[in-house]
Amino acid sequence: MGIKIRRIPEDFKVFELNKFNILKRGKYKLYLLKKKNLETFDLVDYLSRTNQIPRGAFGIAGLKDKHAVTEQYLTLDDKYELKILSENNFSLILLGYLNNPIKIGDLRGNRFEIIIRGITGRELHGISTKCNDLSVPNYYDSQRFGSVHNKDFIIKYIIKKDYETAVKIYLTSFSKFEIKKIKQDKILILNNWGKPVKLKTRCLSHIVDTYQKTRDWLKAYQKIPANAREMFVFAYQSYLWNECIKLLLKKHFDKHSLYSVKYNVGSLLFFKQSINGLPKSFQTLSSNMQVESYEKEIIKTVLEKEKLDLKDFDINISGNFFKTYKREIIIAPANISISSPTNDEFLRNKYKIKVCFTLPKGSYATIIIKRLFNF
Known about the structure:
- Helix 9 packs across helix 10.
- By secondary structure, the chain is α+β, with helices and mostly antiparallel strands.
- The termini are close together.
- The longest helix has 27 residues, at 226-252.
- It has eleven helices and 16 strands.
- It has helices spanning 40-51, 121-124, 127-130, 154-159, 163-172, 180-191, 202-214, 217-221, 226-252, 293-306, 365-373; strands at 12-17, 28-36, 58-60, 69-77, 86-87, 90-98, 109-119, 136-137, 258-263, 266-271, 281-283, 326-328, 330-331, 334-338, 342-343, 351-360.
- Among the domains are: 19-98, Alpha-Beta Plaits (2-Layer Sandwich); 163-225, no CATH class.
- It is globular, with a radius of gyration of 22 Å.
């Protein structure tokens, strides 16, 4: 059966780490946002809609896991007032004021408290030893790929200028967790592809209506919410970065020193024992990147497999773009602690432990768990 995480939301806690010069008055209200089982963008959209406040008036440093209990910071332009500060699955606590809004990436890191369940007695052995060296490749994990259905990257069709297929995937793909009315609308769209249909979901209706008026799939694509389109870019760029790092590891490690672990868009390679000599960082891909010498062959090989060239990543006409930045190749958790095992109340004859650690911003706690348990 294997180990389990997120059996209940309280099993996975995330605390955003930040440092502010909090003022008594300022241009932006600063809130501590506590949420449970909620996606960050969905909550911001809800706050915007119910309070009739422009979405751009809110500031957050990043997305936090949906199936979790999380704390993060949020700013709001001081000229707006929130009517609702708490409901069953979220609360907002006013901490004070700032003179600048929080922007994506404005955080120091995250502290994690994770309950791992379903552990056998055999699996408990060696965990403490592994904690002495928990350095891992800084992969993007499955949470990054929520916009990907059947390993189909929407933005790859934008790169290839196949705008119709990109829009079709967005308008007709759904998961088992999809809201019922959205699922019904998507089935209706699929069964009447390219034709006018009456939909219950305003966002989907807006995209379909745009195509019917313009007969232009690019214009229809541009009506997909901006945050969703941004996630399409992040997902494919992250996948390509992961593929580059896997190839880099193959060049530096003997194949017997590596092992493979599945994730939702493929597999990841981990090393059994860390070594020195790897570059410090590897760049994310874009059309105007300055490729380092150690990156050149790796990027070429990965893109050949994708049947793409770097110049293809200029997609500005779509309203989206790829941005290059350096991402650390290897990370290690700080301030790690592991509890003594106790009986798992959900699984007979199995154990649970609590693992706590801190990671830099943009790094995934589940990658650390994969390294611990090879799951």
